[in-house]
Amino acid sequence: MSVFLINFRWDANLLQINPTASPEAEDLLRRLLQFNPHKRLTAEQALQHPYLAQFHNPMDEPVCNRGIRIPIDDNTKFTIQEYRERLYSEIVRRKKEIRRKMREKERVERDLSRQSRRSKYRSSGST
């Protein structure tokens, strides 16, 4: 059952949604579902929550130090499926663009390396 389909009250007992959830799971979910974004847990804070403690490894948790902008119009209402498809398409497009840039960079580096070797060869042959 989707949480989005439930007539959800913010002050409701979250155990009604999943009666087998532990108190730690309920607490984490309540903190993640805070309506006020300033009160809501960040990803880093969520990873430090007792419910996720067994999975928390600060040495293997990369942090993005900049905001991520998703180029999907916030003023257009999409179905969940449409949003999912647009988001996936954007991820695929960006990955292709990153790969293209990496290949171009490698090509330029190879060309510079060849030019450098030729230059060294010419200078050593002319002495």
TrEMBL record:
<dbReference type="GO" id="GO:0005524">
    <property type="term" value="F:ATP binding"/>
</dbReference>
<feature type="domain" description="Protein kinase">
    <location>
        <begin position="1"/>
        <end position="52"/>
    </location>
</feature>
<dbReference type="InterPro" id="IPR011009">
    <property type="entry name" value="Kinase-like_dom_sf"/>
</dbReference>
<dbReference type="InterPro" id="IPR000719">
    <property type="entry name" value="Prot_kinase_dom"/>
</dbReference>
<feature type="compositionally biased region" description="Basic and acidic residues">
    <location>
        <begin position="103"/>
        <end position="114"/>
    </location>
</feature>
<protein>
    <recommendedName>
        <fullName>Protein kinase domain-containing protein</fullName>
    </recommendedName>
</protein>
<dbReference type="GO" id="GO:0004672">
    <property type="term" value="F:protein kinase activity"/>
</dbReference>
<feature type="region of interest" description="Disordered">
    <location>
        <begin position="101"/>
        <end position="127"/>
    </location>
</feature>
